[in-house]
Design a protein that fits this description.
It is a single chain. Helices cover about 40% and strands about 15% of the residues. The chain is an alpha/beta fold. The protein folds into two domains: about 40 residues, no CATH class; about 100 residues, Nucleotidyltransferase, domain 5 (2-Layer Sandwich). A five-stranded mixed sheet has the order 4-3-2-5-6. It has a two-stranded parallel ribbon with strand order 1-7. Strand 3 and strand 4 form a beta hairpin. It is elongated. The N and C termini lie far apart (about 100 Å).
Length: about 150
Amino acid sequence: MQNLKSRKRRKLKAEINVVPYIDVMLVLLIIFMVTAPLLNLGVDIQLPQSAAKAIQNDKEPAVVSVDEGGALFLTLGASQREPIDADTLVKKVSAFVRENPQVPVLVAGDQRADYGKIYQAMVLLQSAGVPKVGLMSQPVQAEQAH
């Protein structure tokens, strides 16, 4: 009789084993924590400081940024800043200005950048058909004003 009891079948469990799901969730969490800061990479540009008054404008400007090394970046309206080459810059800005003729076009040149690189960006904008180009700067800090 004891032999029959030891051969008794075990009851099936109707529970879900969640341990593998927790492992997958933790791996995904780590992946997202590592990649999230990489999605918001920007260009470190130190704008020159000036006491000029800010321009009031209703439309989002098109901004061409020139970093310290002379690389070009384009921000059209409210879109993300993207690295761009000279030919693509002329094409995109030309099309953007044709669609929005009153939009301001600004050049944000790093103060450490070579003046020639900023000037080349302005020449590219002129060849794209932009009638007026503005230069961006930062307001003078209170400590440096004295």
